[in-house]
Amino acid sequence: MWLKFEQRPEPSKTMSYLSPLLAVALMFLSGLILFLVLGKSPLEGFKVFFLNPIKDSYGIAELFLKATPLMLCAVGLSVGFKANVWNIGAEGQLLIGALVGGGLALHFEGSTSPFLLPGMIVAGALGGMAWAAIPAFLRTRFNANEILTSLMLVYIAELLVSWLVHGPWKDPDGFNFPQTKLLSAKATLPILVEGTRVNAALLLGIGALLVGWIFMNKSFMGYQMKVAGQAEHAGRYAGFSAKRSVWIGMLAGGAMAGIAGISEVSGPIGQITEHISPGYGFAAMIVAFVGRLSPIGIFFSSLLMALLYMGGEQAQQYLNLPSSISKVFQGMLLFFLLGSDVFINFRLRLVRRRK
Amino acid sequence: MGLNFISSILFATVVAGTPLIIVALGELVTEKAGVLNLGAEGTMSVGAVAAFAVAHHTGNPFLGILAGMGAGIFMSLLFGISALTLMANQVASGLALSIFGVGLSAFIGKPYESVALASVEPIRIPLLHKIPVFGPALFEQQGLVYFSWVLIVLVAWFLYRTKAGLVLRAVGESPVSAHSIGYGVVKIRYQAVLFGGAMAGIGGAFMSVFYTPMWVEGMVAGRGWIALSLVVFATWRPARVMIGAYLFGGCMIAQMFVQGSGVRISIPAQFLSAMPYAATVLVLVLISRNRSTIRLNSPASLGQTFLPDA
Questions:
Q1: Is B248 on the interface with A (CB under 8 A)?
Q2: Which of A286, B46, B168, B214 has its CA 20 to 30 Å from the CA of residue B293?
Q3: What are phi and psi of A180, to 5 degrees?
Q4: B193-226, pLDDT tens digit by residue?
Q5: What is the C-alpha to C-alpha distance for residues A54 and A33, in angstroms, rounded to an integer?
Q6: Which residue of B270, B273, B297 is the best one to mutate when testing the A interface, meaning the one whose CB has the most A CBs within 10 A?
Q7: pLDDT of residue B104
Q8: ipTM of the complex model
Q9: Is B114 touching A (CB cutoff 8 A)?
Q10: A11 CA to chain B: closest CA distance, Å?
Q11: Alpha helices in B130-252 (DSSP H)
């Protein structure tokens, strides 16, 4: 007897919703095994990693705080991913958004204009878009693979941040720490819930999810993007421009990542440092996939991903494990999702093995 | 600029290019079978940390290389299960492997971050290593440097002079035809993927055990991605991988050039560190702008999932 994949007559809708849940379940299960292998009590490990972070209202607020940049980046990326535009450089676009938006605040230091904060956010979006425009241009004009170029630009963005905070933008009164001055209150996003760090960026995130939903489901351009992704030839036959898909996909990802970057700088961090993002731009790709590239799904998967980040911090504190365990879980989650997705197009059948 | 300076530049270029050659050749074979594995960065990272740990505990750098290779095979097996057995999108599977591998290496490697490894004596080829200027670069190197040269010849010979190589290329060009005349497409692709993983693991081992020799989180620093770009640069031809690898190796030691050349303009260190990444983008543009070069040389089924029964 042997198990064999048999193609379904048509993709299963049910499985496409069940698959992320299956992946999460598998991730929990392998988490238990991982803690066991590491010589920790699996139940204790599970509790510390997945439950401790959200055991009180402050924890839940932190969950939303950390989910915000993830949902912003993921909803932007999902637009491109739908059309098979592989922007994997959101991390770099996030950093440039943070630099441009934060730079604006530093330039107009002391300004009390009500336009400062909105200006910073627009600048952040433009910064992210500009960084994403490079791979889009190189792809549409020179046919250069956007996967590799967008990723290379992440490293360059990191080095640019490093240069600025070590050099020209370093706070002269900062005891030589590689960081800029703190942003003023007028350049800081207002707190939404007193006593927590949740700020107006969450509203931007939710707004982005709404806009993303309308764009993908109600606009003709969104429809074109979907067709281009699912049936390239049909899209071309219908006269949909592949180049425009690349531009829209890249710029949407860049704009949202840029907003995520400036929201971190003018939110919880309050200045530009070398540690603006713990890999949100990369984790957001997983968020987008686990959320099935749909805004509603992305909302929930960004919360899950935020939980994984917080779990890593808890594991470091209480289980004496490196916080990079978060990234192990993130990677596993994506693998399990890709694996579970086989059931969307295939079903398992028991067959007698032929001699 | 003295001859000694040129000699040390050549030496450092060869050393910096070596992991790129090994990893890129592994990926080249994988891609020739029609599989795009974007996981080289993660595979190298895990290979590097596994090799470092084993070399540290056993004191034997050779066992370190084997461990790196084993870790690389393990990592690429994960990719194979996802992209070949479960027929998931290759790009997404490769990204998953890179994210997972970089995270896993940071996790495993934490205890080793403050550990130093004794540097390994190079293998000196008698007499030849005394040749002025070129001697040290070519004949006074680590074993893996010589291995990288042998590998170029072996890969080229395998792909273009053996039947198995022909079959592998056929699988990459037209999996459906290869399948219909009875070749196991998935099996051959698995072999190619595992070979690529083994090479990426060895490349990582070279980084942590011989090159630096130490382990720091993120030390692979994009070399896996650069190796992927190198395959495009080489238009899928083994010999050209070497040229590209040394070009990038030269970029990576740009710092040395500036310090040694006596130029007194102060260039921020970050700008020099950004050079290999910028060069990668530039090279991708120069090669890809000619669409027919890419179309003629890249394996026709690259990146496409093969459905055995479809």
A1: no
A2: B168
A3: -85, 180
A4: 999 999 999 999 999 999 989 999 999 999 999 9
A5: 22
A6: B270
A7: 96
A8: 0.93
A9: no
A10: 14
A11: 135-139, 143-161, 163-173, 175-180, 185-205, 223-233, 238-252
